[in-house]
């Protein structure tokens, strides 16, 4: 008995990979964000950290890293650059000196408020989609990301 291969997909084979579509879309997002964020003198990862702190200020470094899906070796230099720019402060936790908390400075709060006043609208326009469509897509991608993190988590550890 011989097996036959399914017919080859038409077009570029990479177009058949969801992972590549997500990757290429991420690169496109970065190209749109860059000039918007350059106005504020911050990078995309710094923007995400400031947005996360705006939502819940004075977070521990580990909580912020978990929220951003960043390891400490990536997050610590990012926080140090934000601190050097005067946008955040780092302090030791009063109950546990081993824990470092990160909070927005007044300048950081002002910057992120200004950025959030214009960047989301510019991004919405760049997508060519309606807000409801983007919200639905975001929910689907967040669910996909959670499922993939769970599948990739070592046995016995939640993702």
From TrEMBL:
Record-linked Gene3D superfamilies: Winged helix-like DNA-binding domain superfamily/Winged helix DNA-binding domain
Compartments it resides in: Cytoplasm
Keywords per UniProt: Cytoplasm, DNA-binding, Transcription, Transcription regulation
Any Gene Ontology CC annotation: cytoplasm
Principal place of residence: cytoplasm
One Pfam family, short name: Staph_reg_Sar_Rot
GO MF, one example: DNA binding
Transmembrane annotation, as ranges: none
Domain HTH marR-type: 15-143
Superkingdom as given in the UniProt entry: Bacteria
Example GO biological process: response to stress
Protein name as annotated: MarR family transcriptional regulator
